[in-house]
């Protein structure tokens, strides 16, 4: 079993898929638009929603994120999309060069909250918010840190 971060967008999921695929050097990208399968004739989608992303996945370096658009016609059911700190994606990668590369690529057009640096809990840790408002945490030593703290408590 794996935990997968899922990102919702307001009509720009296609752009986000392209950005994340390139920045994370995806090895597999899957995406389905609403017009890729038959629509219910009783509830046809407006033309502007048919090219929006219904479901997608971006696989990279052993990880995966999934994305979709929230349809304007469904906001009465789903609610409005709220950008903010409701999701954070944590990349834990032992390979410091790969971690630095992902950090640099995802920071393009975004805001670096904490540059990659050596901290008491990691030899390479940083935080950024990308150009889509998604928060990312980078940590080279998360597993070793957790194991060390847990073993010290016993």
Give short descriptive properties of this protein.
alpha/beta, 4 helices, elongated, four-stranded mixed beta sheet
General description of the model:
- The chain is α/β, with parallel strands linked by helices and 154 residues long.
- 25% of the residues lie in helices and 34% in strands.
- The chain is built from 4 helices and 8 strands; from the N terminus they run E-H-E-E-E-H-E-H-E-E-E-H.
- The protein has helices at residues 13-23, 75-78, 96-106, 142-153, and strands spanning 5-9, 28-33, 53-60, 63-69, 88-92, 111-119, 122-129, 135-139.
- The chain has a 4-stranded mixed beta sheet, with helices on one face. A 4-stranded mixed beta sheet has the order 5-8-7-6.
- Strand 6 and strand 7 (122-129) form a beta hairpin.
- The radius of gyration is 18 Å and the shape is elongated.
* Total beta strands: 8
What is the 3D form? Answer: elongated
Q: What is the helix/strand order?
A: EHEEEHEHEEEH
Oligomer: single chain
User: Structural class, judged by helices and strands?
Assistant: alpha/beta
How much of the sequence lies in strands comes to 25-35%
**Distance separating the two termini:** 28 Å
User: What percentage of residues falls in helices of 4 or more residues?
Assistant: 10-25%
- Rounded to an integer in angstroms, the radius of gyration calculated over CA atoms is 18 Å
> Major beta sheet, specifics?
4 strands, mixed
Number of helices: 4
Strand order of the largest sheet: 1-4-3-2
What average pLDDT do the residues reach?
Answer: 87
Low-confidence stretches: none
């Amino acid at each position: 079993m794996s935990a997968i971060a899922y990102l919702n967008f307001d009509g720009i999921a296609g752009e986000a898929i392209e950005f994340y695929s390139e920045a994370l050097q995806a090895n597999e990208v899957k995406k389905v638009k609403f017009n890729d399968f038959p629509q219910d004739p009783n509830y046809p989608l407006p033309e502007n929603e048919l090219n929006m992303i219904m479901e997608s996945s971006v696989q990279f370096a052993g990880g995966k994120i999934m994305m979709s658009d929230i349809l304007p016609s469904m906001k009465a059911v789903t609610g409005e999309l709220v950008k903010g700190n409701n999701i954070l994606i944590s990349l834990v990668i032992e390979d410091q060069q790969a971690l630095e590369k992902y950090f640099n690529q995802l920071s393009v057009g975004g805001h670096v909250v904490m540059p990659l640096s050596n901290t008491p809990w990691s030899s390479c840790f940083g935080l950024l918010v990308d150009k889509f408002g998604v928060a990312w945490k980078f940590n080279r030593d998360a597993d070793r840190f957790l194991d060390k703290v847990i073993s010290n408590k016993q």
